[in-house]
Write a structure and sequence with these properties.
Layout: E1 10-14, E2 17-20, H1 46-56, H2 61-72, E3 86-87, E4 92-93, H3 101-109, H4 113-118, H5 120-138, H6 150-157, H7 161-177, E5 179-182, E6 188-191, E7 219-220, E8 228-229, E9 237-242, H8 247-253, E10 265-267, E11 273-275, E12 282-283, E13 293-298, H9 309-326, E14 339-342, H10 343-351, H11 364-371, E15 380-388, E16 394-398, E17 405-406, E18 414-419, E19 423-425, E20 435-436, E21 440-447, E22 450-456, E23 462-467, E24 471-473, E25 483-487, H12 500-507, H13 531-539
Parallel strand pairs: 7-11, 9-13, 9-14, 10-13, 17-25
Antiparallel strand pairs: 1-2, 3-4, 5-6, 8-12, 10-11, 15-16, 15-18, 18-22, 19-24, 20-23, 21-22, 23-25
Helix pairs in contact: 1-5, 2-7, 3-5, 5-6, 6-7, 7-8, 9-11, 12-13
C-alpha cells in the first residue's frame, strides 16, 4: 500500500521541494492557500507525515520528531490531555498559560479544533504550522540551523518562563544524543545525533539548591504548600506513576495552587531526578493512602510500550535507597500494604480512581531486578504432604513433579514447602499469604526457608494447587511457582484411579512395619498396614481424579 493521503497532489513553491501531498488547507511559505482534500493515512506511513509536514512548513524534521516524542511518545492518546494541557500526538496546548495555542494551530491549517485533536496527521501539521508561526514572529534566521529554533521551542512549550526553558533544553539534549523510538503501532521514528548546543537552565549550586532533598542525587525544586500537606507521617510503600507529560510540564503544574496535586519525586527519561515534596510529608498523588506512601512519577506516557533504560536505572536506585532507609520491602504488592505498587494497582485495591499508570509497558520484573541488585525470587526446592502415622512418626509424600496423589485418609493436612532462600510473609504472616484451589488454610509457620501449611477440608477426588501470593524473600521479591497434587483416598499406587491394583498393593504390605517406603499403603494413618486399609480401597473402588485442565 502506498503512503498516499490525497486524491490530488498539490504543487508547493518551497525551496528544494518540487511537490508534496498535504491534507490540510494552510498557507505555504509564499502565501498560497493549499488544498484541504483528505483521505485516511495508513498507519505505517506516519513517519512520512512528519517529513511532509516539516517540508511544508519549513521546520526541521528532527525538531518536529523530537516534539512528537515529548508530546505523546508517538502514541494515540485520544481526548486525554497531557499534564501540560496538550492534546493529540504533538500535545498542542490549551492551558492556563497559553489557552489558545491549539485553536491557533487548527486555524493555521484550516481545520476544526476537534479534528486537530483526534487526527494524527492534522495534529502533526498543526504543530509544524505553529512552529512556523512562532518562528516568523521571532524573525529567526532559518539558515542558521537548529540552534536558531531554541526560543521557538520554548514558546511551543507554552509553560511558565523557567519551565519553558527547561523544556527547550530537554528537546535539544534529545536531538544531540539522537534516538530511535518504536511505538505501539510498530511505527519507528529516528533522529540521528546532531551537533547542537546543550544547555542546562538549572542552577544546582549549593547556594541556590539547599540540601533539602532526602535523596542526595535529586534536584530540590519544592512544590508550594498549597499542593501538599506539610505534616510528617511514617511511610511504608512507594507508588509508581507516569506523568503523562514532560518533566518541565510537571514542575510547572505542581507549582500552581490550582493543580491541587504533587509527587515526592520526578524521574526524567534522561535519568535526572527532581524532588518536590519531602518524604515524610504528604504529597497529593493518589487520592487515598497518601499519608503512608511516597510517590515517584516518571516522565512519559502509560500508553508507551517501553521506557528508556536511563529512567529505569535512576528510578530503581532511588526506590532502593528509599526502601533501605525506611525499611520498605523491595517487592511489588497488590493491596494496601508495605512494598511497591503501581498507581493502577492502588486504584484497583483501594482508591478506585480512573488512572491506569504506569501501564502495560512498565517492566516490573526488570525494575524489581534492578532494585534487588539481581536477587532472584525464591524458588521451590522441595514439597511434601506430611502425616503422622502414630508410632511410625512423620511420613512424607514427595510432591515433586506435580503428579503425586495423596491417598491417605483425610487428604492433605500438612504441607511442608522448602525454598532456596529464607522467606517471610509480606506483612507478618496471614492465611491470605497462601492460596488453595480447594479447601482452606488453617495455619502457617515459617522457619528460615521452610514454610509449613496446615490445611483443612480439602475435598476428595480433587486436584489441588497451592500458590504463594504473600510469601517473598526476606526484604526481596515474591515467590515464583506453585505446588500441585491429586487428592484421592484409596489410590495406593497413585495412578489417579482406585482399582483392584490398589487392593493388591495394600495386601502385599499387610502386617509390615510402616516406613517411608510403604507409608502410602497405611491409608488409615494408624501406624500399621491392616485389613482396615484394604476396606478403604474396597469402599472407594471406581473413584477417579478429574481430568487436568488444559
Amino acid at each position: 500500500m502506498k503512503c498516499s493521503r490525497l486524491r490530488k497532489t498539490v504543487a508547493l513553491l518551497l525551496v528544494g521541494i518540487a511537490s508534496l501531498t498535504l491534507p490540510y488547507a494552510h498557507t505555504s511559505a509564499d502565501g498560497q492557500k493549499l488544498s484541504s482534500d483528505y483521505e485516511a493515512i495508513p498507519a505505517p506511513c506516519l513517519p512520512q507525515v512528519f517529513a511532509e509536514a516539516a517540508a511544508a512548513w519549513d521546520v526541521p524534521v528532527e525538531l518536529l520528531l523530537t516534539l512528537g516524542w515529548m508530546g505523546s511518545g508517538f502514541e494515540d492518546r485520544g481526548d486525554q490531555p497531557t499534564l501540560e494541557g496538550g492534546r493529540g500526538l504533538m500535545a498542542l496546548r490549551s492551558n492556563a498559560w497559553f489557552p489558545d495555542d491549539l485553536s491557533l494551530a487548527a486555524d493555521l491549517i484550516g481545520v476544526d479544533p476537534a479534528r486537530i485533536v483526534r487526527d494524527r496527521s492534522a495534529n502533526i501539521h498543526g504543530a509544524a504550522a505553529l512552529l512556523d508561526h512562532f518562528a516568523r514572529l521571532a524573525d529567526i534566521d532559518r539558515t542558521q540551523g537548529l540552534d536558531a529554533w531554541r526560543d521557538v521551542v520554548a514558546r511551543y512549550a507554552a509553560l511558565d518562563a523557567d519551565s519553558s526553558r527547561l523544556f527547550a533544553a530537554d528537546a535539544f539534549a534529545r536531538i544531540a544524543h539522537g534516538f530511535t523510538i518504536t511505538n505501539s503501532r510498530n511505527e519507528t521514528f529516528t533522529v540521528e545525533s546532531m551537533r547542537v548546543s546543550v544547555e542546562s537552565p538549572i542552577d544546582t549550586s549549593p547556594t541556590l539548591q539547599p540540601m533539602h532533598a532526602d535523596y542526595p542525587s535529586a534536584i530540590w525544586d519544592p512544590a508550594p504548600e498549597c499542593n501538599y500537606t506539610p505534616i510528617p507521617y511514617d511511610k511504608n510503600a512507594i507508588v509508581i506513576h507516569m506523568l503523562e507529560g514532560t518533566v518541565a510540564g510537571a514542575l510547572a503544574q505542581f507549582k500552581q495552587c490550582t493543580t491541587q496535586a504533587s509527587v515526592h519525586y520526578i524521574v526524567a527519561q534522561s535519568g535526572t531526578i527532581w524532588q518536590m515534596v519531602r518524604e515524610p510529608h504528604v504529597a497529593w498523588h493518589v487520592g487515598c493512602d497518601e499519608n503512608r506512601t511516597i510517590g515517584i512519577a516518571h516522565e512519559g506516557y502509560s500508553t508507551s510500550p517501553s521506557h528508556p533504560e536511563a529512567l529505569y536505572r535512576s528510578s530503581a536506585r532511588l526506590a532502593k535507597d528509599i526502601c533501605q532507609r525506611r525499611g520498605i520491602p523491595r517487592r511489588v504488592i497488590t493491596h494496601s500494604g508495605a512494598g511497591i505498587i503501581g498507581h493502577d494497582g492502588l486504584n484497583a485495591c483501594c482508591c478506585f480512581g480512573p488512572e491506569t499508570d504506569p501501564g502495560p509497558g512498565w517492566d516490573w520484573d526488570g525494575y524489581l531486578n534492578r532494585i534487588n541488585d539481581g536477587q532472584p525470587a525464591p524458588v521451590i526446592v522441595s514439597a511434601y504432604s506430611r502425616k503422622v502415622h502414630h508410632s511410625a512418626g512423620d511420613c512424607d509424600l514427595d510432591l515433586a513433579g506435580g503428579t503425586a496423589v495423596e491417598a491417605r485418609k483425610g487428604g492433605p493436612t500438612r504441607l511442608v514447602v522448602t525454598f532456596d532462600q529464607p522467606i517471610e510473609g509480606v506483612e507478618g504472616l496471614s492465611h491470605d499469604d497462601v492460596r488453595l484451589s480447594a479447601g482452606r488454610v488453617a495455619s502457617l509457620s515459617i522457619a528460615g526457608s521452610q514454610l509449613t501449611i496446615e490445611t483443612r477440608d480439602v475435598p476428595d477426588a480433587s486436584r489441588l494447587t497451592v500458590d504463594f501470593p504473600g510469601i517473598a524473600a526476606v526484604g526481596g521479591p515474591f515467590v515464583t511457582g506453585s505446588v500441585r497434587l491429586g487428592v484421592l483416598e484409596g489410590d495406593a499406587d497413585g495412578n489417579g484411579r482406585v482399582e483392584m491394583a490398589d487392593m493388591h498393593r495394600v495386601h502385599d504390605e499387610l502386617l509390615q512395619p510402616v516406613t517411608d517406603r510403604n507409608s502410602q499403603q497405611d491409608l488409615s494413618v494408624t501406624g500399621s498396614i491392616s485389613v482396615t486399609d484394604m476396606v478403604i480401597v474396597r469402599n472407594r473402588l471406581g473413584n477417579t481424579l478429574p481430568d487436568e485442565e488444559p
